[in-house]
Write a sequence for this structure.
């Protein structure tokens, strides 16, 4: 088994070498330039859009769950589906991402936004991996919690054969503002 199979891209390595000629003359030890194996290519394991109400205000975010791979850093990029420009959201160390259970929250999204996400990793020297596959997501409408609504139906539970009905729904407010 080659020694390189046990090396991590999160570490910097150095090799000491010296020459020995045919007459058994031994040269001085020389240090090689530091090296690190290339990082592994990452993948998103899930991209989940979340739309909810927090303190009577709409809240939107995307939760990315990333694969645990051999890398010193993860770089997460995002672009709007309509755009051609990728923006770097974060560059996070392996240890910090591990503390967050390999989850990253993108809270800088807008309602009904369409986003693409991709990731690449770096080794300790900054060498980049290939990009992950691109994942696309759309921020959904905030779901109505029917437990919080009061619906006033026809009086006395009357049944009718009408095709259209009008109901009085309270509260009468669309927190998202898009009706």
């Amino acid at each position: 088994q080659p020694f390189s199979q046990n090396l991590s891209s999160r570490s910097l390595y150095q090799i000491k070498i010296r020459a020995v000629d045919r007459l058994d003359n031994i040269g001085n030890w020389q240090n090689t330039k530091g090296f690190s194996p290339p990082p592994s290519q990452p993948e998103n394991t899930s991209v989940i859009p979340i739309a909810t109400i927090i303190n009577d205000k709409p809240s939107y975010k995307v939760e990315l769950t990333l694969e645990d791979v051999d890398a010193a850093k993860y770089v997460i990029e995002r672009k709007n589906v309509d755009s051609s420009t990728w923006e770097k959201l974060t560059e996070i160390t392996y240890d910090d991402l591990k503390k967050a259970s390999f989850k990253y929250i993108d809270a800088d999204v807008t309602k009904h936004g369409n986003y693409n996400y991709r990731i690449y990793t770096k080794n300790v020297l900054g060498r980049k991996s290939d990009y992950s596959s691109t994942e696309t997501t759309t921020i959904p409408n905030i779901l109505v919690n029917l437990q919080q609504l009061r619906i006033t139906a026809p009086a006395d539970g009357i049944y009718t054969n009408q095709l259209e009905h009008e109901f009085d729904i309270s509260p009468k407010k669309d927190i998202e503002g898009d009706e």
Observations:
- Helices lie at 94-99.
- The chain has one helix and eleven strands.
